[in-house]
Amino acid sequence: MYSYAPLIIVFPLIGFLVLGLFGSRMKNKKLIGVIGSGTVGLSFFLALALFIQMLGIEPGQRKQSVELFTWLSTFTGSSNSLTVNVAYQIDQLSILMTLIVTGVGFLIHIYSIGYMHNDTGFWRFFAYMNLFIFAMLNLVLADNFLLMFLGWEGVGLCSYLLIGFWYEKKFTGDAAKKAFIVNRVGDFGFILGMLLIFSTFGSLNFSTVFNSASLLSVGNTTALWITMLLFIGAMGKSAQIPLYVWLPDAMAGPTPVSALIHAATMVTAGVYMVARCSILFALAPVTMEFIAIVGAVTAVFAATIGLVQNDIKKILAYSTISQLGYMFLAMGVAAFSAGIFHLMTHAFFKALLFLGSGAVIHAMHDEQDIQKMGGLKKYLPVTYKTFLIGAIAIAGIPPFAGFFSKDEILWRAFSSEQGSPVLWLLGVFGAAMTAFYMFRLVTLTFEGEKRFDPHRVHPHEAPKTMTMPLIILAILSIVGGFVGIPHASVIENWLEPVFSPAQYKLLSGEHTGGLMEYLLMFVSVAIAVSGTYAARWIYLQRAELAVSLARRYPRIYRTLLNKYYVDEIYDAVVVAPTVKISNDILWKAIDVTMIDGSVNGSAKIINGIGKILRKIQTGIAQSYAVVFIGGILFVITWLLLR
Amino acid sequence: MISEFILTAVIFLPLIFAIVVLFLPKENERIIKLIGFVGTALTFLVSLVLYFGFDAAIFGFQFQQKNIWISSLNIGYHVGIDGMSLLLILLTTFLTPLALLGTWNSIQQQIKNYTAMVLLLEVGMIGVFASLDLFLFYIFWEAMLIPMYFIIGIWGGQNRIYAAVKFFLYTLFGSVLMLVAIISLGYFASTVPGGLFTTDLLDLYHVAPMLPVNMQMWMFAAFGLSFAIKVPLWPLHTWLPDAHVEAPTAGSVILAGVLLKMGTYGFIRFNLPLFADASLRAIPLMCTLAVIGIVYGALVAMVQTDIKKLVAYSSVSHLGFVMLGIFSMTEEGLQGAIIQMVNHGLSTGALFLLVGMLYDRTHTRLIVDYGGVAKLMPIFATFFMIISFSSIGLPGLNGFIGEFLIMIGSFKSTLIDNRVFTGIAGLGIIFSAVYMLWMYQRVMFGPAHQDGLYGGHHLTDLTKREIAVLVPIVLFIVWIGIYPKPFLSKSAKLVKHTVEQMESVKHGSQVRFLGYVQLQSGKK
């Protein structure tokens, strides 16, 4: 019935192949742009058709798989050996993710036509972007862990390629490499998790594994191990403590990349994976608690760093880490659909914010320091308005999209079986800082005095290909939350069949808190609003206050500015010792000196023995005679004395 | 009838061309090169007959040919292939012409001898994989050493004599013990009731299970040492970096692409089925050394300053995975090991070709001498990236197929609690990304040199010839990564049977490998 579904994945692949093989010879940039975005657009419309088709089907019948061919197997025919198919599973969760990926992806592709227009690597950019969409769709549509992992690593590859897109600069190469390697640390966990899943359930197929898992009891030790290992993977891909360090550096890539890959889609893969495996995680309350804590702490931690950064993209990057923390907080307190809901709204407003920042950077001739901006709203009216909408949405002010999803998470963090007031408090604290740093960003960038040289920089509004996506995303950031109105949540209803096994295990469901729910909602909104006003007040009227604060607490300020020195610590504790040990001990001491030394040494000894033995065979007849006679005498003596 | 001679034809076709080359005047360099290439390419085409004629549904050796050679000792010219030898022979015949084509202008002196040596080397390599008689196997095994020794020693780098002698002595040391073991195995066959001295592998498969365990252990050690040096298994690997660095590009390609696999091939072909009890007992030792090799090779690769040495140490790491797969003694592990032999041949062979292409232009292999090459050689950069990621084990490319199967097999192995081993081996997945991407970044990324000079030379992107060499390799890299069935299914029967044998030996059953011979005689 869904047999055309694989086409959704095939189109971007075609785009990649065409552009990758022939792009360098295509002179017409328009054609490249049309191929690049057109293939993604086609995927989006197909996904939309699929979605509409699903609407007409009973909720219980909506999940179906389409199998293409056997990918990896021993081919021995043994029943207990590995067999993995290339097969796609369409259900309520995967179609939602597909719509987000292709929809937001399509808009960003169109935006890129304008943004990348003057870049010599135009075709290369679109080839990589199409490859990314292809990989991401494999990730979300796979019907087994291994194919999901193919997408998982595939998006990592594209992230690497696109972060390092301008590879001639030293730091882009560093950032690209760092992103891939840190992600590999997470993937190490993912792979071990898959090994344990296979040895436990005998399959890597989602349905098989999850059906078997639903028979296990909560608190199962194997489930604990599996989920912990999988979560290590999620921490890498979704930039959670302690593996978040690659994401801020990833901003070295072109801005559309930051919007698509490092905000809207790829970094949410970890959240998706946890949601997809919700039944496994439901079996491991310890892991759930761990996820909730990691999420909440990351949400706060990243927000504190965001408070003092001056690079427009870095602020947004830390904000992404922080928002991903909220999504994991939701997962940890078993509010799976709330987490996915926030994933969706975040995709809208964060893509919007990044694309908006791209328009700013574009207008400012590649300037990214917000201290050198100011007063831009006059020059960039569309960018300003849409950016403002994005900022309101992320700050959690009603009725914008972020309010509904974030508030749902906060309420669940407070009220669910796995939640606690502490988690709620962390969440609210993070939300307050989010509102503050976002409006610090808006104020310093768009309002107040100009702090750039108007003779050198002439800000101008972006072309239509760039502003149109901004406007569409702004609309989505306003209305996107209405699918999740508390107690009438369309999205929760839609996703219910996906998460019900896990919810059933955890005995968690809808909690109506009555007055308490609205009270907490009021508190969080009040805090968000005051955060925005505080930022506006300080940066518009009392700019010296921020400076004097920084001056009064230099240590705190410097620590935040330097991101808690985490990169430096990793370098000193992990990277440098590994290199030193490998070089000095493993290679020079063990390999060269010990092993090779003993090989060469024994060769020398044999050589030496050979030299001694050579003296026997001298060719002098007299000495042979002496030995000969001596030998005879020896033998005779021995025979006589025996 | 044809099928009886086709394998022999594949083995000795390069010999005919080698003889032709030797009769040509050495001034005709172009013609000599052309004949070398045509000879190896023709061998590849003929070997395709083996691929298409091979019936993967049948267990046992196909395309067998058996002639008595030394009748008093029952030594015969007995050749035949199963799925594993098929894949490795195809790898050999595939890589050899590419190695010649890829280094068309790299060798400047004594081209006649060089071409002849490569052709002779190919005879030895195919012979090793096709031999079903231990004596014949040993002859090919040793014969192959000689051209390799000369290739390193004559056309190598500055330290070539040291490297060549080291290579020769290391491998000779192992093979002498193997010869002793072959003779004693043959002698043992004559001591069983009604037995005769024989070196025929199929007969020995029949006889070997009767070996007392302590004798098995000695035999395992004698064969195993020889193979472990070839693999190379840690800590017997130190000949490899020297040999690779000094060897000319084609030598490195063949060395990494094919020669190393003879070690792992030997373990599966001889050690496991002939000395099953000993193999089971050796699991902890072999897995430990394999895992050390994986991590150690990767870490040492990371700190190399010479690209070729880096690739050489990465081989230690990759082949560690293969060994881990073999000694997991599971279907996944062995299938992974066999396909990983092919994968490593493709990706490391290609890496050496790429390094060679750079070296031809700049005459330096030091990482610090590069930087920003991607800007000047974009096509080269693309190939280098694809092949690097194949080596890293990116899903969708070939390396992942082997690594993942091996890890699944190793993890689920019940013969030893392998979870810790697998976990540590998994670190190799992280480190491989570290050393490859770090090297890639330092060589390819960053600003290009101001004056555009690298080692005093200008860089030009790949020629059509060089692209023609790399494209087929990349096609296979992607093919195996996405649709490995045509390859994996070839060795499935062998693997299934080997695992069953190991399981039954483990459980003390006497069935052992008897079924093998019956099947053999049944199918001619």
Question: Would you give an account of this structure?
Answer:
With 642 residues, chain A is an all-alpha fold. Chain A has two domains: 6-75 and 83-561, no CATH class; 566-641. Chain A has helices at residues 6-22, 29-55, 92-115, 122-141, 145-163, 170-201, 206-213, 221-237, 246-249, 255-264, 269-276, 278-282, 285-306, 312-332, 336-363, 381-395, 401-415, 421-446, 464-479, 490-506, 515-541, 543-552, 554-561, 566-614, 621-641; strands spanning 64-73, 83-90. Chain A has a two-stranded antiparallel sheet with strand order 1-2. Chain B has one domain (2-522). Helices cover 74% and strands 4% of the residues of chain B. Chain B has helices at residues 2-23, 29-53, 83-102, 111-130, 134-155, 160-191, 201-207, 213-230, 239-246, 249-274, 276-302, 307-326, 331-362, 373-376, 378-392, 398-412, 419-444, 464-482, 485-506, 514-522; strands at residues 62-70, 75-81, 453-454, 457-458. In chain B, a hairpin with a 2-residue loop joins strand 3 and strand 4 (457-458). In chain B, helix 13 crosses helix 19. The chains are: A mainly alpha (642), B mainly alpha (524). Chains A and B meet through strand 1, helix 5, helix 6 and helix 24 of A and helix 6, helix 11, helix 13, helix 16 and helix 17 of B.
